């Protein structure tokens, strides 16, 4: 996803939540950490929304619960980073070195962006635990947006399959973590 598209999506969600994001504000307010050495850094819960982290070394960093939505993580080293609960919605992960066993899925259907992470999934502006999406019916999503029920009827099965696949990666990652702790 391009930075422009990410900003447009953020603007759409921001309007629903009472906030407005402008391109100038985004470019002024978001950090440029391109190529930074952040190895092993505690960034738990950090606001890194739209940050330029291209080529940054985040190996072993604690990014749990961090907001990395719209961030440029191209070619970043995320090996052994803790991404549990991190928001990667709209992040560019091309060429990124992800933690072993970590899976993420990005799907775009009919203008709605889907980001599946091990714990949560975001569809448009809606982010919920994966267990909630796996139980969702067209009736459950009808209130999210106009046309959501019809969209879910058409694409819900594919989204659920992606969620199940990504969640398998989460289970494998926790097994790897438990194995590392015993060594």
Order of helices and strands: HHEEEEHHH
Helices and strands: which structural class?
alpha+beta
Large-scale geometry: elongated
Note the gap between the termini. Answer: 39 Å
Strand portion, in percent? Answer: 5-15%
Radius of gyration: 17 Å
Strand tally is 4
Determine the number of helices (DSSP H or I, runs of at least 4 residues): 5
Major sheet size, sense and barrel closure? 4 strands, antiparallel
- How much helical structure, as a percent, in the residues? 25-40%
The strand order across the widest sheet is: 1-2-3-4
> Low-confidence parts, pLDDT < 50 over ≥5 residues?
1-7, 9-24, 172-183
Mean pLDDT figure: 81
Structure in a nutshell:
This protein is α+β, with helices and mostly antiparallel strands and 183 residues long.
Walk me through the topology.
Blueprint: H1 3-16, H2 23-29, E1 105-109, E2 112-116, E3 120-123, E4 126-129, H3 130-135, H4 138-141, H5 148-182
List keywords for this structure.
183 residues; alpha+beta; 4-stranded antiparallel beta sheet; 5 helices; 4 strands; 36% helix; 10% strand; elongated; disordered N terminus
Provide a descriptive summary of the structure in words.
The chain has 183 residues and is an alpha+beta fold. It is built from five helices and four strands; from the N terminus they run ααββββααα. Strands 1-2-3-4 form a four-stranded antiparallel beta sheet. The radius of gyration is 17 Å and the shape is elongated. Mean pLDDT is 81; it is low at 1-7, 9-24 and 172-183.
């Amino acid at each position: 996803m391009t930075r422009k598209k990410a900003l447009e999506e953020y603007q759409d969600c921001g309007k629903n939540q009472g906030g407005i994001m402008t391109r100038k504000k985004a470019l002024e307010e978001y950090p440029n950490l391109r190529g930074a050495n952040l190895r092993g850094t505690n960034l738990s819960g950090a606001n890194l929304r739209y940050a330029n982290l291209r080529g940054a070394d985040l190996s072993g960093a604690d990014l749990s619960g961090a907001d990395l939505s719209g961030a440029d993580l191209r070619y970043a080293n995320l090996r052994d980073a803790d991404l549990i609960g991190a928001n990667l919605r709209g992040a560019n992960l091309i060429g990124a070195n992800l933690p072993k066993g970590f899976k993420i899925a990005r799907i775009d259907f009919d203008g709605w962006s889907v980001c599946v992470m091990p714990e949560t999934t975001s569809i448009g502006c809606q982010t919920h635990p994966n267990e909630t999406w796996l139980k969702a019916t067209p009736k459950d999503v009808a209130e999210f947006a106009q046309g959501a029920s019809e969209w879910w009827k058409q694409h819900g099965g594919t989204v659920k399959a992606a969620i199940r696949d990504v969640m398998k990666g989460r289970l494998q990652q926790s097994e790897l973590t438990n194995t590392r702790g015993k060594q």
